[in-house]
Write a structure and sequence with these properties.
By secondary structure, the chain is mainly α. The chain has a two-stranded antiparallel sheet. About 60% of the residues lie in helices and about 5% in strands.
């Protein structure tokens, strides 16, 4: 009850207007989409799929943050989407660098007659110029 003796009810998720129509809290669909793309991009960033998803998540996250400034809804999701998307882009970039480095170091090994020859060739190229007799 308030000071005038009238009962007041507070609902966190919904309000009612003067006519009694239920009003829902504003939502930010862009923030939800951006967060979904950011998390999916981060989880799949080690298989190259995450990079493009994260770029989309980053773009939508920026748009969601601008919408959140205007409406006040979804700011936390938008910021989380930006962070996860940025991390996914960084991880995808590191994976690409590692794969290119590996492919460059082992390019002579791509025509072996057997898997055993391939693994021996890769070990020789990755270990440097050590003699083959030192490998087991």
């Amino acid at each position: 009850m308030n000071a005038q003796g009238i009962e007041t009810h507070h609902m966190a998720s919904a309000r009612t207007d003067a006519v009694g129509t239920r009003l829902t809290a504003p939502r930010n669909g862009l923030a939800t989409a951006a967060l979904t793309l950011g998390v999916t991009g981060l989880l799949t960033s080690v298989v190259f799929v995450g990079g493009p998803l994260a770029v989309l998540g980053l773009i939508l996250g920026i748009a969601a943050l601008m919408t959140a400034r205007r409406t006040g809804a979804g700011r936390g999701k938008a910021v989380t989407a930006l962070v996860t998307s940025a991390l996914a882009i960084v991880v995808s970039g590191l994976v690409v660098v590692c794969v290119v480095w590996y492919a460059n170091r082992t390019q002579e090994c791509y025509r072996p007659d057997s898997f055993h020859q391939y693994t021996q060739c890769v070990r020789q190229h990755l270990d440097g110029d050590r003699p083959a007799s030192s490998h087991r």
